[in-house]
Design brief:
With 656 residues, the chain is α/β, with parallel strands linked by helices. Helix content is 44%, strand content 16%. The chain has five domains: 5-56, no CATH class; 60-134 and 256-433, 3-Layer(aba) Sandwich (Rossmann fold), CATH 3.40.50.300; 152-250, no CATH class; 454-531, Arc Repressor Mutant, subunit A, CATH 1.10.10; 540-651, Restriction Endonuclease. Strands 2-1-11-10-9-3-8-7-4-6-5 form an eleven-stranded mixed beta sheet. A five-stranded mixed beta sheet has the order 14-15-16-17-18, with helices on both faces. The chain has a two-stranded antiparallel sheet with strand order 12-13. Strand 16 (578-585), helix 23 and strand 17 (606-611) form a beta-alpha-beta unit.
């Protein structure tokens, strides 16, 4: 059936935003009677406007009120408002740096606050603090450790379910494998059961210390333990360790509040973990409690949530946040994601974003990708998008205007700078009305009190020692704990004097290095389990050397206290189907026995005796000379300080 000319002409004037009443009267006449004279007069009336639009405006349709919404953030070419409604999920905002994405977020989230909508923002700057001038009841968290949050506290789901959610997100953010995930799940389930006895939750630190205290034979399980410890250790060594040091924090209270999370001080892996775990908790909390109203959740880096690599990693299916995109509507969560590289985002965000907004791009790959994501563009429209300047956008809303339109974001009123002091006072005002954080539970009575109690600074220093002992010097731990040399020295001297720790001095060939080691009272006051070593009978100095040697040969996966057929080797390296046994000699007393057992029982292919000093080296060399030729050819003695400057090939090179 042939289309009536009036209908085609109506589409034309709508496209160009022509609102002349006379033009519409002419169309009504043409619809009734296809009068060529009337059509000619129509063209004479509208052609100047169409010509002007083609010469001086964008090639996109000129919409009317159909593009308006409750949350207004831009103006169309005809001067009308462009907006969205809270129930129109979700929003993908793309554009290069400086194209206006942050300004767009400010308009949307400031409007949302004025309409009583809760907001969550994950940002990498302090710009969004200006929203406090609109609503003071916003918590600003910058992950400096002052706000306590325990990621292991379930929000709206059972402990078993949360265990799986946490493990999924943790391995996603850290790039771990499913074997490590299952290892973490088993240990976490044990801790949940253990803490039920005291009506408490395990903390991230409890999980870390528990895994560290376990002993596994060399193999897959030991590898999973090592990979988990490496990632947990990296995450807990900074401010997140302070934030997570609680049985329960403000994790449930913030679910009912507007929050700005300033994630810039976190590493990339920490950012991915925190954004994902907090949004997952928000979803489950709101689903379980059927919270009324909407929450606008925005991230100024969508790749933290929806990077394409997350979808295909390890063939394990979509991570939890990708799944939540399709179901978060029932929880009243509308997600706003900004990205500079949309071609690197997974399909879930592109397919679930009903609203897409594109600002300027200098990269043709991203421009082409967004054009395909938003629908077919004419060559003229695509060419126009190549020249978008700051604040100019092309937007599409599948609910109300599926054809993209051009609009301009107005400048956001300059906001004042909100200081950290003002932020802290505003946070404290809100936190004072909430249930306060619950400390980690101690399963053993802590006998230290009164005059023996230690300060927070001293406790923080001991924690830094615990996470780095046997590997870092005391001056390196000063830096890790954020102490000056003067403050660190005074703190260390006090802790050593009170029996909390011992400082071991080693000659590494380039001067003396000092290594702090925690003693039993420190473990008790920190509520930690001490990791014990078979070699500790030889003294702390022996254990430090073991770790230094193992760290030096870490590329070969050196093992401390490897048990081979009942013989424990101080440090063992298995390379090219050969076993290299390294024994740490503080004295020469047991070295003849060590050499014989390493070769005859442990079947070592080569034995290295690392000697504390020249005296021990001379004595051990004398012992080696008394061995039979077969053992002598497989044995070498060196100063420990020299070993730390050699590679493996040099180390096993025969004498002479």
């Amino acid at each position: 059936m042939q289309k009536n000319p009036a209908a085609e002409l109506l589409d034309l004037i709508k496209k160009h935003g022509i609102k002349n009443p006379l033009a519409y009267k002419m169309l009504m006449s043409i619809a009734v009677n296809e009068d060529k004279g009337m059509i000619e007069k129509f063209w004479q009336l509208v052609m100047p406007a169409i010509t002007y639009n083609r010469l001086f405006t964008s090639p996109f349709p000129k919409p009317g009120s159909e593009v308006d919404g409750l949350i207004r953030f831009a103006s169309t070419e005809l001067g009308g408002p462009l907006g969205i409604n809270p129930d129109e999920c979700h929003v993908l905002i793309s554009g290069q740096t400086g194209s206006g994405k942050t300004t767009l977020l400010k308009w949307i989230f400031s409007q949302a606050l004025k309409h009583g909508i809760k907001v969550w923002l994950f940002v990498k700057s302090k710009e969004m603090r200006c929203l406090l001038d609109i609503d003071k009841d916003i918590i600003v968290i910058d992950f400096d450790g002052s706000v306590k949050i325990n990621p292991l506290v379930p929000c709206g789901i059972s402990e078993a379910e949360h265990c799986n959610v946490f493990s999924d997100i943790f391995i996603q953010s850290q790039g771990l494998y499913d074997g490590t995930k299952n290892y973490i799940i088993q240990r976490l389930n044990f801790l949940y059961e253990r803490h039920k006895e005291v009506q408490s939750y395990p903390s991230m630190l409890d999980l870390y210390y528990y895994i560290m205290a376990l002993r596994h034979k060399p193999g897959r399980t030991a590898y999973f333990q090592e990979s988990a410890l490496n990632r947990f250790g990296g995450m807990l060594s900074g401010n997140l360790g302070k934030m997570f040091d609680c049985s329960a924090g403000f994790e449930r209270a913030i679910m009912e509040r507007s929050c700005i999370f300033e994630i810039d001080r976190l590493t990339a892996e920490q950012q991915i973990f925190m954004v994902n775990i907090l949004l997952a908790n928000l979803f489950y909390h709101r689903t379980a409690n059927r919270n009324p109203g909407w929450v606008f959740a925005g991230a100024d880096d969508a790749n933290l949530l929806f990077d394409a690599s997350f979808e295909h990693r390890l063939d394990k299916g979509l991570p939890i946040i990708h799944h939540l995109l399709s179901t978060s509507r029932k929880a009243g969560i509308n997600i706003f994601c900004c990205t500079q590289s949309p071609h690197q985002l997974g399909s879930s965000i592109h397919s679930n974003s009903a609203i897409k907004i594109m600002a300027g791009f200098s990269d043709g790959v991203d421009l082409d990708f967004m054009v395909r994501s938003m629908g077919d563009f004419s060559d003229e429209q695509k060419s126009f998008c190549c020249g978008l300047s700051r604040g100019q956008i092309v937007a599409k809303n599948s609910f109300r205007f599926p054809r993209p339109v051009f609009a301009v974001i107005p400048a956001f009123p300059a906001g004042r700078d909100v200081s950290n002091d003002e932020r802290d006072k505003n946070n404290e005002r809100q936190f004072s009305a909430m249930q306060q954080p619950k400390p980690r539970h101690s399963f053993e009575k802590n006998p230290i009190s009164g005059s023996e109690a230690i300060s927070n600074d001293e406790k923080e220093f001991l924690m830094g020692v615990y996470l780095n002992q046997y590997k870092k010097t005391i001056t390196e731990i000063y830096d890790i704990a954020g102490f000056s040399a003067c403050k660190g020295t005074k703190t260390a001297e006090k802790l050593e004097g009170s029996g909390m720790m011992k400082i071991i001095s080693l000659d590494k060939g380039k001067g003396v290095s000092k290594f702090p080691i925690l003693l039993e009272p420190a473990y008790k006051i920190l509520n930690l389990e001490e990791k014990r070593f078979y070699g500790k009978g030889a003294g702390y100095e022996h254990v430090v050397w073991q770790h230094l040697v193992a760290e030096h040969f870490k590329d070969f996966k050196a093992d401390i206290e490897l048990n081979k057929f009942g013989k424990f080797i101080d440090v063992a390296v298995q390379h090219d189907n050969k076993l290299i046994a390294m024994e740490i000699a503080m004295t020469s007393v047991h070295e003849k026995e060590n050499i014989e057992k390493d070769i005859s029982i442990a079947k070592a292919d080569f034995v290295i005796i690392g000697c504390k000093d020249e005296k021990v080296l001379t004595e051990v060399n004398s012992i080696i000379q008394g061995l039979d030729e077969a053992m002598k050819s497989k044995t070498k003695a060196l100063l420990l300080s020299k070993i730390l400057g050699m590679n493996l090939e040099e180390l096993v090179k025969p004498n002479g």
